[in-house]
Amino acid sequence: MPQEILLERETLVEPAKKDISFAIFRIVDGIKEILEEDRQQKQPLILSLNENLIIKVVKEFLTNKQKQCLIGITGESASGKTTLVNYVSKALRKRLYNETYTSLCCDDYYKDTSEELKQAGSYEELYKTGFSFDKPDAINLELMRAHLISLKNGCGINAPEYDFVTCESIPNRAYKNPTRAILAEGLYVLGEELVDLFDIKVYVFTPYEQIRERWFERAASRGKTGSAAELQFNDVNSTAQIYIRPTMKNADIVVNGLANAEYIEQITTKVINLINDVINFYK
Question: What is the pLDDT of residues 244-258, one digit of tens each?
Fold first, then answer.
């Protein structure tokens, strides 16, 4: 157990039951128990964790009722980012009101390239021009950053929506509330343009062969097959080495992209129940 956590625990010995230290002690210990159970699984959800982060986030949330927590989730294309967000959100909806969290997706911030696609005539010809969907400049990260800052400051935003078949960006498509928990997922959320905004940084790690299989299945659902799909996947893999894999070093938590979706929901539910029960007692 890290020294900082040992010191923290020493200061929390026999706290008064209504003291803030009691709530922190209970939540930290409870999360540690959940993580220990997770380690025993064939496909555990958590591969690595900055344990000091637990205390930091718990303290901030319990002592600052206005605190908004921004959670950034990244990983390679088809690593399982969206699945993680979807099942975490499902667990949140079961126990909490939807107004307690908001989610943003990097994919919705792709720049409009519908005219470029029309002029090229096909995805294959578009890729031959050197165009890449898998470099940071293909996404309007400036707008996404501005939206995240607005949400963090308590202001609602109107997020765009991207059509992967036509490459059209539709502005102001979805209103997002400035909730206490804000989840942002996508290829570049832990890149230099956005990483400083997040309180908790998550990287989803998935082996190459699984990523390749998932990617081609998804590409087919978006109308990309044959040589066009091969061209893009080669680009996806090469750009991931430059822009995405190095960001794992920025992560506070590394998640297993092979973890079962229902198991993700199960673990998230346990954490939510733990935090809710302690906070309700603390009140």
Answer: 999 999 999 999 999
